[in-house]
Fold this protein.
Amino acid sequence: MKHHTIKTLAAALLLTGMVAVACHKEGDTTKATVQNISNTGCSYHTDKQALEEKGLFDDNDSVSYSYSHGTLSITHHNLFVNCCFEEGGIDVDITVNADTITIREYEHDGPLCDCICRTDNSFQIAHLPHGTYTLVFLSWYPEPYSITVTI
């Protein structure tokens, strides 16, 4: 009887360990990385005079996304950038903390011009397991924007 109980206990512990390892791997976001950053270029330039005549936030930002094989593809539509960003491009940094992914989009090193423009910025977050995440965009004006996605 004792021998059977020990085998059952050992099997239960082994199964529990396997489940714990499987759960950890399914939710492991430590390898999430940004890749394939691209943009549509300036959709229009806005100088100081135009900003005074038109509200800065008349055109709303929006986000679209899709998920396939561990990669979340995101497009941030109507992102405000300095109109000389095209020389240096746009960088995207992410910070993953449990189920929150903080996204910072910014102009890479380059000259600054006396104008701004809008662009559609696309990028991918690779090595992202299935789950529900809150995406927080820090570059959103006038304050951060967040969206919850289930992938």
Residues 1-25 have pLDDT under 50 and may be disordered.
